[in-house]
Amino acid sequence: MIAYFLLLVVVALVQVVNTHESIPVSCNSPIYCEGPLLKTVQLARLYDDSKTFVDMPTSKPVDQVLEGFKALGDHPGKEEIRQFVSSHFAPVASEMKPYNITTSGPLAWSDKVDDAKYRGWAEVLHQSWARLAFQFDTSSLCDGCVSSTLPVKRPFVVPGGRFREFYYWDSYFVIEGLLQSGLNSLALDMIENFLDFVDTYGFMPNGARIYYLNRSQPPFLTEMVNLYFQKTKDVDFLKKALPVLDKEYKFWRTNTTVTIRHNDRKYKLNRFNVENHSPRPESYVEDYNLVHHGPQALTPKQQSDLFSDLATGAESGWDYSSRWTKHHHQDGGDLLRSLNTRHVVPVELNALLWSMETYLADWYETYGADLTTDKQRRRKTSYYRKQAHQRLDAMDTLLWNDTSAEFFDYNLTSHAQTLQFSAAALVPFWLGAVPARARTPAALHRVFDTTHALLRQNPGILTSTAVPTSMQWDFPNGWPPLQYVAIHAMRNVDAWLDKDRYEGLAKVLAQRMAASAYCSWYLTGGSLPDAGLTKLANTADNGHMFEKFDVRSLTDSGFGGECKFKYRHEKKGFMQLFCMGGGGLDTVQVGFGWTNGVALWILNNYNDLVAPDCTSNNIYPVPDLN
Ligand SMILES: *[C@@H]1O[C@H](CO)[C@@H](O)[C@H](O)[C@H]1NC(C)=O
Ligand SMILES: *[C@@H]1O[C@H](CO)[C@@H](O)[C@H](O)[C@H]1NC(C)=O
Ligand SMILES: *[C@@H]1O[C@H](CO)[C@@H](O)[C@H](O)[C@H]1NC(C)=O
Ligand SMILES: *[C@@H]1O[C@H](CO)[C@@H](O)[C@H](O)[C@H]1NC(C)=O
Ligand SMILES: *[C@@H]1O[C@H](CO)[C@@H](O)[C@H](O)[C@H]1NC(C)=O
């Protein structure tokens, strides 16, 4: 009898656990995920951006929405569909409201900034978090109404533009900026939202939408926890985070590991890896057309591979890039049809996982005592140490190229390195995921002397050197997070070399990044009356921060036809404002979370930078190396 009772208790416990674990981890809404409603509405092209529809909450309960859709019959016309949407859906973002940042006084360190214009601009950036901070609030939605947002308890900061929800890897750079702004509790809120997500879904989704549940993004959560921990030394927080980071680690390990045979040995590394059989709801029309309307018809297997490789490209955060395509030229077909994302082992993903393994080992060793038994703690510490060790060994053998003195991605189709430069190759030097062979002064000199030479030719760190592919994660774009990574990498390398060889170069890069962001803000109407920066005539807006920049010098003009804020300037000294190339979206994203974060970090770390006069030549020459 007692045994029977115990058995019941055990069964009940198992059921509780199962219910928790069985929260659907793929898109399964009859409205926002693959199904006849989504397909009909998206292919009617009511909006320029496929993302608009899937971000609209319903204005009627779900069953009424579905009935309304059924009533449309088999082949509704565009006007009927428009009518259906307007009578059953509410405007985008009705399920969130602005969050009042109550603790935000003036920026604490602005006195340290020498230049009056940069001082004023830093204050503008600091205040701009208020425009990007939101909280989830469904009080304006009817009973039974739904939205595609994945609810969170705490406030959050979004990138801006069409990105109305928070994103995974973007948020690292946002959190960096919030910490620069002294908004520690908002940074903590964001991290805790992510920890809740990992707890609920078993991994960190790409962003806070149901249609992002099929994939993650570069694993930056451990880096966020570290950033916050370094700033606050909050050990209790770290202890709370540790078991959740374990869980995230398990996801990457289980879902994305590949075993590579090389010279009779087996190595384990990771790649981005999403299984998907339908157009991404937020890019429905683009994916649908790519797969169904190309120059050649695809077999069902090819279609499904392409859907998976598209979603995997989005998981990489580099959507899209020549790193993932078999072809690098637009040769009549669409480049994206040659995506091979799941067969590329990316260098930054493995550097991030090495960093995760290393922090988890360190943190369990140092702070794990109250979390678990001594034996468990030692087991976990040595498990993570071993994973980190094996990964570095695999990176050394498969990703590092000693002849080129460079990290490359590894191509699982050709079983060879890609031999193409991308800024991702600098991530190991930022995070410290560098095998002994690559850490010698000679190797470090070769890696960063090349970077030095590249910066003589281009004002910023190029995303990749592939010929213009019109994809946004390629030449000629430079992205703020990649500049941040490069600056950190150079500072680390100086520390390893124990001299100031690259300090000047890091500073020039910081200067150029800051100048580009500042001038694009000024040229779109930004002003600082107190610092003598008057608003430019003919600017309707009040200054925008952009998500990415063009690092080309001026001579090329084949790009950016649709750019609203197109701006070309006769100067080479800093990155220029970029407008959209093809392959991405055709509107400029303004806001912008990671650019603000990186700019604040630069201004706080390089106090003596001087704001350029954005209307005349300002060149920041690359210094000689020490
Ligand atoms: C998510 O994955 C499942 C199974 O892998 C797939 O059937 C579904 O179409 C995917 N959903 C989205 C939104 O991509
Ligand atoms: C946020 O601030 C605005 C303007 O100061 C105010 O009208 C609003 O009530 C505040 N909202 C909350 C939730 O405190
Ligand atoms: C991870 O893999 C498991 C097991 O194959 C699968 O059920 C789950 O959907 C995958 N998660 C994601 C986000 O792809
Ligand atoms: C990988 O190797 C294959 C086979 O050699 C090649 O066609 C492809 O361009 C390479 N790169 C990618 C990203 O697939
Ligand atoms: C390393 O790079 C060189 C080009 O610099 C290339 O010839 C060589 O094949 C690469 N090594 C490996 C192991 O891929």
Structure in words:
With 626 residues, the chain is mostly helical. Among the domains are: 1-231, Alpha/alpha barrel (Glycosyltransferase), CATH 1.50.10; 281-344, no CATH class; 477-605, no CATH class. Helices cover 45% and strands 6% of the residues. The chain contains 19 helices and 13 strands. A three-stranded antiparallel beta sheet has the order 1-2-3. Strands 6-9-10 form a three-stranded antiparallel beta sheet. It is globular. It binds 2-acetamido-2-deoxy-beta-D-glucopyranose (NAG) (5 copies). One 2-acetamido-2-deoxy-beta-D-glucopyranose is lined by residues 26-27, 33-34, 211, 214, 275-278, 280-281. GO terms for molecular function: alpha,alpha-trehalase activity. One of its GO terms (biological process) is trehalose catabolic process. Residues 1-19 form the signal peptide.
Quick structural gist:
With 626 residues, this protein is mainly alpha-helical. It is built from 19 helices and 13 strands.
Tell the overall outline. globular
Helix/strand structural class = mainly alpha
Lateral strand order in the biggest sheet: 1-2-3
How far is it from the N-terminal to the C-terminal residue, by CA?
81 Å
Helical content (DSSP H or I, runs of 4+): 40-55%
Low-confidence stretches: 1-24, 553-573, 577-588
Number of helices: 19
Task: Summarize the main sheet.
Answer: 3 strands, antiparallel
Which kinds of small molecule does this entry bind, naming each only once? 2-acetamido-2-deoxy-beta-D-glucopyranose
CATH topology of one domain: Glycosyltransferase
CATH class of one domain: Mainly Alpha
Strand content: 5-15%
**CATH level-two architecture of one domain:** Alpha/alpha barrel
Average pLDDT value? 88
Number of separate strands: 13
Radius of gyration, whole Å:
25 Å
GO molecular function: alpha,alpha-trehalase activity
Catalytic activity: alpha,alpha-trehalose + H2O = alpha-D-glucose + beta-D-glucose
Keywords: Glycosidase, Hydrolase, Signal
Family: Belongs to the glycosyl hydrolase 37 family.
